[in-house]
Write a structure and sequence with these properties.
The chain contains 39 helices and 27 strands. Among the domains are: 100 residues, 434 Repressor (Amino-terminal Domain); 205 residues, 3-Layer(aba) Sandwich (Rossmann fold); 72 residues, no CATH class; 89 residues, no CATH class.
């Protein structure tokens, strides 16, 4: 600890007490969950004591000392001294009172700057008469959205449906917990930047929630790439502050940023990979990877639009990929309430506040009643626009996205200046048309130059170039004065620094730039850039702005380029299909041509294709086929596409689809789809009428879905993905019928005695049960399948040997033993799955001589390979993060599943697995994600399945029936 810090600690007994507690915890190797279990104290109480946030009670201190094996008397003395100090003063305040002449350190000044700089959000249309009021305190505005992650480290499937979750959805703070490096994907306006602001401010204030305890003490660096790329080469750490225009850059001590990063005390927030031109994204990744190599312990969060970089773009650097989910109906309700509460704070009169109460109540009802409006409101940006327009139009709302943008522009540009007796603000008065013409110039320059921010001098020059042709505007002021009027009064431009100009949101830039492109007849420019994700929204908006003949011409050009270029064909043809819904009027021949090309890409064959199609909007529903004649890999993605689109049309499609399914079909995605609709309606209309309902595994994400289970009794198999208490879980389950129960959010469970009420239960999965310490309550139950995931460090597994019928065991949690020889599991296990983070060697696995299926997610050494090979009945093996150079021959293996992170080493497979009948290779996340299957020709009659490989070579050596690829590739006719 630095000398200055030691002095501060000794001056503050509360800080010294907290330091002692943290030191003892580190010496004992205890994590927060383990300390909670030992003390019986709540997480908040323990956290406040360890962080010195308040004086702990004597009982709390005694419990902590006992749990940590320490003498409590010195701690009680420190507590008594701390209690005598002023209770309302922070350590910083105490420092000021003790040494008033000491200046704050650079670090303190910087954290204060970050907190102030990022503590406000611009709220669209919050107060139309006072742009300076269109700011919202972050602590009032921040809404913890849901983030989705595709889980890694699960057993590799064979392509058939299994019980693994396709997506795990958690609130942001829960999803980020335990991550050190995150790639965050989200659509425009979905809240990515707001989440980074919240992380920066909460870290600067040291107010991150308990879920992010591991993130506390971090110093945030906010690095918007839109600013960095404009300034030239991406900065090294000592230039971070100057690159973003922080005024403290000149005061930064030599080597400070490097020291913070090297200590693992930095939170690097990189915003907007999508705002880097495509040809420079490789260089951006190289820059990130250099930082990661130099500063392995720092936290990194990187944001991007979904289509800007491929899945696994940073997988080799061990980034966790999370996606911002659309706001749920409850989230929309909360946002609408907060927006109106903020608006009431700036209201001038009681009558206006009363009117806002009425408008809020009306909009809450409207959003719930109209699914199309709910879908439009599913991002914070669009929801804010709808709130503002609803207020501005006194309850009347536009119905389409384009109408919404048009109305928003009119509202933001006019701003009711005349109604508020502000006739000529800043001495300049522009009509809406004049403002749009000037803003289009700025937007189109940014789009053509692949930037989202420009120098103020460039913006002034662009306005100046326009003024000679706009005499009425030129007579009112200089280019600089007109530009500043647009910044101050339009509500669309802002000045993030003294020398830069940008749009308040990329959506408006794309909308206005597209209008300029159509007016300039720049169709070749639009089509030539249509493959670039930065131009996707521009193309859609261009079709919206174009006249009928122009939109038909633009769509024809997109199709022709797609026909001519194999590498961009799917993207261009789907973009043309997505643009159809934006056209007010379209030539029938052009529509038929676009739909014909889109049908070639139908039906979707993977989750990725489903998400890509759903992004095209409701119009794609007309192209989706019913279940008749669909292949097995197409049913689920079709359902997922329709469910993600949402709305009445999608609901009707799914209802008919479910009724038309074959009786023996039970697609997992049909149940997952109900989170997009009213739970009660979906349960009654779709799930209840399913021809073979007993085959469905019901998945519960929300309280509404849990309540809707009452319509679906008897329930045979159910998964809970929301934290519920034991009585809530069991309320609608049947002791005679429920045979499978999976609880993936078990934070509210304090015991498992309720499981004993389910006499027919044979399969149980438990995850994130932070309050559980053992499974003794399960002793003697006839469970054959048990999965335990993400359990506390102090968890006891001793009761595993009290499950006499247990044959299938999955452990995806930290284990307390050095080897499997100490694992107290029944000797009759036939299936064992181990996660990569169990921390236990495979030595001892030969205890289970009946094993037929083994899943391991950590590379075995040579001795462990030999022990695995000695298992006489082992027929199926799944391995990830492996090195076959240490393997030994295993002639008993008939089915091999590989999850490579790099080269799959297929040339070694015939040597060690000579009697294989089937092999499955999942290349998702592998670098490179390619496979050469030529060496597998040495194994006669082998069936090969390969998932997510960008390139497979050696196919010519096999019959088409011998090799299955997922997603199944498309040819000209399929």
């Amino acid at each position: 600890m630095e000398k200055q810090d030691m002095e501060d600690v000794h001056e503050d007994p509360l800080a010294e007490l907290a330091l002692r507690l943290r030191t003892l915890r580190a010496q004992r190797g205890l994590q927060m969950g383990g300390l909670q279990q030992r003390t019986g104290l709540g997480r908040t109480t323990v956290s406040q004591a360890l962080n010195g946030q308040m004086v702990p009670s004597e009982a709390t201190l005694v419990a902590l000392a006992e749990a940590l094996g320490a003498d409590v008397e010195p701690m009680l003395a420190l507590r008594q001294a701390a209690a005598r100090m002023p209770q309302n003063l922070s350590l910083r305040a105490v420092r000021r009172s003790v040494r008033p002449t000491v200046q704050p350190s650079f670090e303190e000044r910087y954290l204060s700057y970050v907190a102030e700089r990022h503590s406000q959000l611009t709220v669209v249309g919050l107060d139309l008469s006072r742009p300076e009021r269109a700011r919202w305190p972050l602590d009032a505005a921040y809404l913890s959205l849901e983030l989705a992650e595709r889980p890694t480290g699960w057993p590799a499937g064979s392509g058939e449906a299994d019980d693994r979750p396709s997506v795990v959805v958690k609130r942001a703070e829960n999803a980020l917990a335990g991550c050190r490096r995150v790639l965050l994907r989200g659509l425009a306006g979905s809240g990515k930047t707001t989440l980074l602001q919240w992380l920066a401010v909460a870290a600067a204030h040291d107010e991150l929630p308990d879920e992010l305890t591991d993130w506390r003490g971090q110093i945030p660096f906010v690095l918007p790439l839109r600013t960095l790329v404009r300034r030239g080469p991406l900065p090294e750490p000592h230039d971070f502050l100057s690159a973003v225009g922080a005024p403290l850059a000149a005061s930064q001590p030599e080597g400070w940023a490097d020291e913070v990063l090297a200590k693992g005390e930095a939170l690097v927030l990189v915003d907007g990979i999508d705002e880097v031109p495509q040809e420079h994204r490789g260089a951006t990744r190289d820059w990130l990877e250099r930082l990661l190599a130099a500063y392995k312990d720092a936290h990194f969060v990187v944001t991007t639009r979904p289509s800007a970089v491929p899945e696994g773009w940073l997988a080799s650097s061990r980034f966790t990929e999370l996606s911002v989910r659309p706001m749920s109906a409850p989230d929309i309700g909360i946002f609408v309430g907060r927006w109106h509460a903020a608006a009431r704070q700036s209201a001038a009169t009681e009558a206006e506040r009363s009117q806002l109460h009425g408008l809020e109540a009306a909009l809450q009802m409207t959003v719930r009643a109209q699914r199309d409006l709910a879908q439009l409101s599913s991002t914070p940006l669009m929801c804010a626009l709808i709130c503002a327009l609803h207020r501005d139009r006194r309850g009347h709302l536009p119905h389409s996205r384009v109408e919404l943008y048009e109305a928003a522009l009119s509202m933001l540009l006019i701003r009711r200046d005349l109604e508020r007796s502000i006739e000529v603000p800043e001495g300049i008065q522009l009509t809406e048309h004049q403002s749009v013409q000037l803003l289009q110039r700025l937007a189109y320059w940014l789009i053509r130059n692949r930037q989202t921010e420009m120098d103020r001098a460039t913006a002034e020059a662009l306005v100046g170039d326009a003024l000679p042709a706009m005499q009425a505007v030129a007579e009112q002021g200089t280019a600089d004065q007109v530009l500043m009027h647009l910044v101050g009064r339009s509500g669309l431009l802002r000045q993030p620094t003294m020398d830069t100009i940008d749009f308040v949101h990329r959506t408006f830039q794309d909308y206005l730039g597209a209008k300029a492109a159509i007016e300039a007849h720049d169709f070749p420019l639009l089509v030539n850039n249509a493959h670039d994700d930065q131009w996707e929204d521009v193309i859609r908006m261009a079709v919206a702005h174009a006249r009928p003949a122009e939109s038909a011409d633009l769509l024809h050009r997109l199709i022709e380029r797609g026909d001519a270029e194999d590498g961009h064909r799917s993207r261009l043809h789907l973009l043309a299909a997505a643009s159809l819904q934006y056209a007010t009027e379209i030539d029938p021949d052009a529509r038929r041509l676009v739909e014909q090309r889109a049908r070639i890409l139908m039906p979707p064959r993977s989750q990725e294709e489903a998400e890509e199609l759903a992004a095209l909007g409701p119009g794609i529903l007309d192209l989706l086929p019913g279940p008749e004649n669909l292949e097995a890999d197409e049913v689920g993605p079709v359902i997922k596409t329709a469910a993600a689109i949402g709305g009445d049309h999608a609901y009707a499609f799914l209802r008919l689809f479910a009724q038309s399914l074959p009786p023996d079909s039970a697609p997992y995605d049909l149940v997952e789809g109900w989170e997009h609709f009213s739970a009660d309606e979906y349960a009654r209309d779709i799930l209840l009428s399913f021809p073979d309902r007993d085959r469905l595994t019901l998945t519960v994400h929300t309280r509404d879905q849990r309540s809707a289970l009452r319509f679906l009794k008897p329930i045979t198999s159910v998964t809970f993905r929301e934290a519920f208490a034991a009585d809530e879980i069991i309320e609608h389950l049947s002791d005679k019928h429920t045979h499978a129960l999976r609880i993936y959010e078990g934070q509210r469970l304090k015991g498992l005695k309720f499981i004993r009420e389910l006499s027919a239960l044979t399969e149980l999965a438990l995850s994130d049960c932070t309050k559980l310490t053992h499974i003794k309550d399960l002793a003697g139950l006839p469970l054959s399948n048990l999965s335990l995931m993400h359990l506390p460090d102090e968890f006891s597994f001793n009761a595993l040997d009290s499950l006499p019928e247990l044959t299938d065991l999955s452990l995806y949690t930290r284990l307390p033993w050095e080897s499997l020889a100490e694992l107290p599991a029944p000797e009759g296990l036939t299936s064992l799955s181990l996660g990569g983070w169990v921390g236990t060697r495979l030595a001892g696995v030969s205890r289970w001589q009946q094993l037929q299926d083994l899943v391991i997610n950590a590379a075995p050494d040579n001795e462990e390979w030999q022990e695995i090979a000695a298992l006489p009945h082992l027929a199926e093996l799944c391995i990830s993060d492996y090195d076959l150079n240490h393997a030994v021959p295993m002639p008993s293996i008939a089915y091999l599943r590989l999850l490579p992170t790099s080269d799959p080493q297929l040339e070694l497979v015939p040597n060690f697995f000579p009697n294989l009948e089937r092999i499955f290779i999942n290349c998702r996340g592998a670098q490179p994600d390619t496979a050469d299957i030529t060496p597998l020709r040495r194994i006669k009659g082998l069936q090969i399945s390969i998932s997510y490989a960008s390139n497979v070579t050696g196919l010519e050596g096999f019959t088409p029936a011998a090799v299955g690829l997922y997603p199944r590739p498309r040819t000209a006719g399929t």
